Amino acid sequence: MSEPKKRIFIGLIVFTVFLIAAITVALYLIPYIGLRNIHPLAPEIVCLTMSGALGALILGVGLLILTLIRGKEIFFAARLRGIVIEVLFPIMIVVGKLLGISKEKIQQSFVEVNNLLVMAKCRDSKPQRILLLMPHCLQFNDCAIKITTDAGKCQACGKCKIKDLVMLAKKYHVHLSVATGGTLARRRVAEAKPQAIIAVACERDLTSGIQDAYPLPVIGILNDRPFGPCFNTSVDISKVAEALEFLANGGKELRESPG
Ligand code: SF4
Q1: Residue 185 is part of which domain span?
Q2: Model confidence over 226-258: pLDDT tens digits?
Q3: Using CB atoms within 10 A as the burial measure, which of 95, 98, 196, 214 is most buried?
């Protein structure tokens, strides 16, 4: 995945830090905002609270940027991912909207940042149970074989990428599951009890899947949609192979997010 995607998220966070700092200073300095009319100490209390939040945010952002640059866990990469998922991402959507950045671009950037944090965390560990979780729209629309119960039933005709995914799953001894929606995907995760997931989907489904599965590590790979959403979609198999290679080797090879 390209650097600009990662930069959108970092840029939005840095913008948010400056925005909060500017609001804090304004609240303290501009008397006509009227905080002192509420209580004589109100400006100090509000500014102290906001400064505390700002300090925590700067510390978190600093750690996040260092982790992303080094590609290795510095402190709390897993917890940092939680903060990105639960706190920063919702804020980035709002700030991005104010700046006219599309939700889709921010979701792509979020997936990229998530992947880099997962890779930083997994760099020296080897998950034993990996689940390849695929959307049903990857299957060729006219294929009559029901692969949602067992992807191994694929006849390998080559009309869609399921054939390559089955081969990859066999090569790396991982479980491959094809799900028709979020509910089935959640059930498959509960059944397979994976230690790590490689998921392919569109921006919206990947984002919600990563949020739902947390704290499970999920490497997200965006699908290709040459015929529009949810119909005969595709995926760059080399990206799936790279992610599998990374996890299977305890994170020794890959330096970039496959997303
Ligand atoms: S590769 Fe497998 S799933 Fe895809 S169309 Fe052929 S038989 Fe069906």
Answers
A1: 126-248
A2: 999 999 999 999 999 999 999 988 766 555 666
A3: 196
* Residue nearest atom 2 of ligand 1, based on CA coordinates: 154
Which of 73-77, 93-97, 154-158 is most confident? 154-158
Domain-located, residue 142: yes
pTM equals 0.87
Query: How far is ligand 1, taken at its centre, from the CA of residue 187, in Å?
Result: 23
Atom of ligand 1 nearest to the CA of 154: 2
Cβ-based neighbours of 202, under 8 Å, separated by 6 or more: 135, 222, 223, 225, 229, 230, 233
Number of domains comprising the chain: 2
Q: Which atom of ligand 1 is nearest to the CA of 160?
A: 4
Helix/strand/coil (H/E/C) assignment for every residue in 99-118: CCCCHHHHHHHHHHHHHHHH
The ligand 1 atom nearest the CA atom of 145: 8
Indicate whether 96 and 48 sit together in one domain. Answer: yes
Strand pairing of 175-179 and 218-222? Answer: unpaired
Report the separation in Å between the CA atom of 137 and the middle of ligand 1, taken as the mean of its atom positions: 12
User: What CATH number should be reported for the domain holding residue 198?
Assistant: 3.40.50
